[in-house]
Amino acid sequence: MSHLNEHGITHLRHVDLAVTDYETQRSFYKDTWGLTEVGTDGGLSYLAAEGSPEQYVIRLRQGEEKRLDLISFGSESVETVDALAARLGSQGVQLVGEPDKLQTAGGGYGFRFFDIDGRTIEISTDVETRQHRAIEEGEAIPVRISHAVMNSNDPNKTRDFYANVLGFKLSDTLWSEHMGEMMHFMRCNDWHHSLAIAKGPHTSVHHVSFEMRGLDEYMRGTGRVMRAGIKKIWGPGRHNAGNNTFTYFLDPSGNTMEYTTELEKIETDQWHPSVYDIADPMTQDVWGTADPMSEIIARDSFNDPDRGVFVAPPV
């Protein structure tokens, strides 16, 4: 049984965001969300999760426009990085640069390319790990980055790109009678999803999710962010697909961030993806504690149209 991605993609490393309100965002992620700022460089802030060996899980950049700078995934080796870059080039995927030594924190070796919607994706290996620690009982800060969900106006096309070109496997799909297929959960390892593609009016960030130590820490964290006056969009509840808990908040620049825990692991290659009808209340929230999903909730997750599609970030 192999859970490994056929092209050597191992896991989600970090999500890099450009923001216009840099200092406000830095303070939110450090003081409210519970990440640790491990370095700054001019208008860049690198934020790590205490329980994760990744150098950082969020990078903020002071920008004139809000955008997704990139999503970074790990790769097994220099060989798998080179092979994937060659494969993408041969399939007409636009590379931002050829594989080379990385100039970002932790170094390593990798390359960037545009996915089918114009997002910048980075694939890297041999990045230095950072000193991390076990999160203690009652400590309501993120252990690691869990997954990233992106909006696409053609989610099936985007799903096919990640499946056919990058070797992600489909775990499950959300469906609606009126809207068709609404969200595809994609995996590159045994976590139920490291990436999901949501149906939205434009290319943008839907949400980024952070794994908490357990249910108690997840609830304590949810409460702390609520008490800080941050707008809660939805939750607390527990999804059917992936079986993970959820509470969604809006960060100061309008990106949705999620606390989660207990995301399902898929133990078998013989997994058959399910299609869940979002009209069934049990699909969205098996606990029944969150408000029913509404257009108002959904609208927050549509986010602003991403101004960075098919434009590589400056760093």
Q: Give a quick account of the main beta sheet: strands, pairing sense, barrel closure.
A: 9 strands, mixed
The counted number of beta strands is 17
Strand content: 35-45%
Please give the CATH architecture of the largest domain.
Roll
- Number of self-contained structural domains: 2
Radius of gyration: 18 Å
User: Pairing-aware structural class of the strands and helices?
Assistant: alpha/beta
| DSSP summary: helix tally | 6
> Which spans have pLDDT < 50 for at least 5 consecutive residues?
none
Blueprint of the fold:
Blueprint: E1 9-19, H1 22-32, E2 36-41, E3 44-48, E4 58-62, E5 67-75, H2 78-90, E6 95-101, E7 109-114, E8 120-125, E9 144-152, H3 155-165, E10 169-176, E11 180-187, E12 195-199, E13 204-211, H4 215-227, E14 232-238, E15 245-250, E16 256-260, E17 274-277, H5 281-284, H6 295-302
Parallel strand pairs: 1-4, 5-8, 9-12, 10-17, 13-16
Antiparallel strand pairs: 1-5, 2-3, 3-4, 6-7, 7-8, 9-13, 10-11, 11-12, 14-15, 15-16
InterPro entries: Glyas_Bleomycin-R_OHBP_Dase, Glyas_Fos-R_dOase_dom, GlyoxalaseI/FosfomycinResist, VOC_core
Protein name: Oxidoreductase
Pfam families: Glyoxalase (PF00903)
Please tag this protein with its features:
315 residues, Glyas_Fos-R_dOase_dom, 2,3-Dihydroxybiphenyl 1,2-Dioxygenase, domain 1, 2 domains, alpha/beta, globular, GlyoxalaseI/FosfomycinResist, VOC_core, 17 strands, Oxidoreductase, single chain
Structure description:
It is a single chain. The protein has 315 residues and is of the alpha/beta class. The protein folds into 2 domains: 9-125, Roll (2,3-Dihydroxybiphenyl 1,2-Dioxygenase, domain 1); 144-302, 2,3-Dihydroxybiphenyl 1,2-Dioxygenase, domain 1 (Roll), CATH 3.10.180.10. The chain is 19% helix and 37% strand. The chain is built from 6 helices and 17 strands. It has a 9-stranded mixed β-sheet with strand order 14-15-16-13-9-12-11-10-17. An 8-stranded mixed β-sheet has the order 2-3-4-1-5-8-7-6, covered by helices on one side. Strand 7 and strand 8 (120-125) form a beta hairpin. The longest helix has 13 residues, at 78-90. The termini are far apart. The mean pLDDT is 95. InterPro entries: Glyas_Bleomycin-R_OHBP_Dase (IPR029068), Glyas_Fos-R_dOase_dom (IPR004360), GlyoxalaseI/FosfomycinResist (IPR050383), VOC_core (IPR037523). Residues 11-126, 144-262 form the VOC domain. This is Oxidoreductase.
